[in-house]
TrEMBL record:
It comes from the Bacteria. The keyword Oxidoreductase applies. GO terms for molecular function: oxidoreductase activity. GO terms for cellular component: cytoplasm. It comes from Paragemmobacter kunshanensis. This is FAD-dependent oxidoreductase. InterPro entries: FAD-dep_OxRdtase, FAD/NAD-bd_sf. Residues 5-171, 185-328 form the FAD dependent oxidoreductase domain. SUPFAM superfamilies: FAD-linked reductases, C-terminal domain, FAD/NAD(P)-binding domain. Keywords: Oxidoreductase.
C-alpha cells in the first residue's frame, strides 16, 4: 500500500500547485521531479498573469477569470505558509491603442468588462500622458486593465516548494516510480509521452525566449507593447518576453530572436535603453491541441490523472487548475470545463 494519498509527477507550476492544494486539504502528498524544480518552462522570467479580452466569452476565459480572481488570497496563503515571497502583485497593465477602430473597440469593452469581470476589475480607456513608464500610443489613448497581475516564476516556484515543505510534503528529485493515485504534470516531455501512449497527437511544445533587465519599476503596471510583455518584478528587475517558435534545434539556446526582442522593447519604452541585461532564458512550453490546459483522468489508466498544457498562461491558470484537480482526485467531483478534458484533445 502506498504511504501517500497522491503522488504528483512534475515540479513545474501545475505539479507544484496541485501538490499544494492537495496538501492544504489534508492529503498526504509526494512530489517527484526528474531534474529540478522549475527545470522546464516554469523556470522562466516573465510571469505575466494577463486576462483574455472581455468579449466572445467562453469556458476558457471564464476559467481563467476565476483563477485570476482567486490568485491574491491563494498566493498570500502560500507565502504565509512557507515564509517565501512569490513576487505576486495585481499590478494592472497598460496597452497602446493603435488606431481609431481599435479605440472604438476598446471603449465598447468597458461595459462588457464590468459584467464579465463581475465588477471585481476594470477595463478602462485613459489618455496617454507621455510619461517615462508608458508606451507611445498613436491615438493618444491607452487601455488600462486592473485585472492583470504578475509574479516572478522562479520565486513562485521557490515559494510553493517552501510551502510544501512546511506541509510535510515529500519532494524527491531524480528517477523515482510513483505509487498509488498519481497526477502527471510533466510538461512538454509529458505531452510527447502522451502522444505515444494515447496513439494520438494531443499536444506539442513551443519554444519561448525571454530576458531580464536591471531596471526597478516594481510598483508600476506591466506593459503590453509591440506584442511584448514588459513586466516589472518586486526584486527591481524587469522581464521582457517572449518569442513563440515552432521550429528549433536547441531547446534552451537563446539567439538573435532574443536580441530583436530587446531592441523592440527599448524602442517601445526608451527608459529601458540604459538598463543592464542580466539574464537570458529559453525553454519549451507545453501546448495542448485545444490550447486550453488539458485536465482529467488518464484514459484507460485507472488511478492516473493529467494536468498539462499550461503554455503561456500556466501561472495564471494554476490556482484554478489546482483546485479543480484536487476536487476530482480527492473528492470525485468533476468540474472540468468543456474543451479542457484529455478526451477533447483526442477529437481534434
Amino acid at each position: 500500500m502506498a504511504s501517500h494519498d497522491l503522488t504528483v509527477m512534475g515540479g513545474g507550476i501545475f505539479g507544484l500547485s496541485c501538490a499544494w492544494e492537495a496538501a492544504r486539504r489534508g492529503a498526504r502528498v509526494r512530489l517527484i521531479e526528474r531534474h529540478a524544480i522549475g527545470a522546464g518552462s516554469s523556470g522562466g522570467l516573465v510571469g505575466a498573469l494577463a486576462p483574455h479580452v472581455p468579449e466572445n466569452w467562453n469556458p476558457k476565459k471564464q476559467f481563467q477569470l476565476e483563477s485570476l480572481l482567486m490568485a491574491p488570497d491563494w498566493w498570500a496563503e502560500i507565502a504565509a505558509t512557507g515564509g517565501t515571497d512569490p513576487g505576486y502583485l495585481r499590478s494592472g497593465r497598460l496597452q497602446p491603442i493603435p488606431d481609431d477602430r481599435a479605440l472604438q473597440n476598446a471603449r465598447a469593452r468597458i461595459i462588457e468588462a464590468r459584467t464579465l469581470w463581475q465588477g471585481r476589475a476594470d477595463w478602462r480607456v485613459i489618455p496617454a500622458t507621455g510619461g517615462a513608464w508608458e508606451p507611445h500610443s498613436p491615438t493618444g489613448w491607452l487601455i488600462h486593465d486592473t485585472l492583470t497581475a504578475r509574479l516572478h516564476p522562479r520565486q513562485a516556484a521557490a515559494a510553493l516548494t517552501a510551502a510544501l515543505n512546511a506541509k510535510g510534503v515529500r519532494i524527491d528529485i531524480g528517477d523515482h516510480s510513483p505509487q498509488g493515485p498519481t497526477l502527471w504534470a510533466t510538461g512538454y516531455t509529458g505531452l510527447l509521452d502522451l502522444n505515444t501512449a494515447l496513439d494520438h497527437p494531443v499536444g506539442a511544445g513551443v519554444k519561448g525566449q525571454a530576458l531580464l533587465l536591471q531596471h526597478d519599476a516594481r510598483d508600476l503596471p506591466q506593459l503590453f507593447a509591440d506584442a511584448l510583455h514588459i513586466v516589472p518584478h518586486a526584486d527591481g528587475t524587469t522581464a521582457i518576453g517572449s518569442t513563440s517558435e515552432n521550429d528549433w534545434s536547441d531547446p534552451t539556446a537563446t539567439d538573435a530572436q532574443l536580441d530583436d526582442i530587446l531592441t523592440r522593447a527599448r524602442a517601445a519604452l526608451p527608459v529601458l535603453g540604459a538598463a543592464k541585461l542580466i539574464d537570458r532564458w529559453a525553454g519549451i512550453r507545453p501546448r495542448a491541441r485545444s490550447r486550453a490546459p488539458m485536465l482529467g483522468a488518464w484514459p484507460g489508466r485507472p488511478g492516473h490523472f493529467i494536468a498539462n498544457g499550461g503554455f503561456k498562461i500556466g501561472f495564471g491558470m494554476a490556482p484554478k487548475v489546482a483546485t479543480t484537480m484536487a476536487d476530482l482526485i480527492l473528492n470525485g467531483q468533476d468540474t472540468i470545463p468543456k474543451g479542457f478534458r484529455v478526451e477533447d484533445n483526442l477529437r481534434l
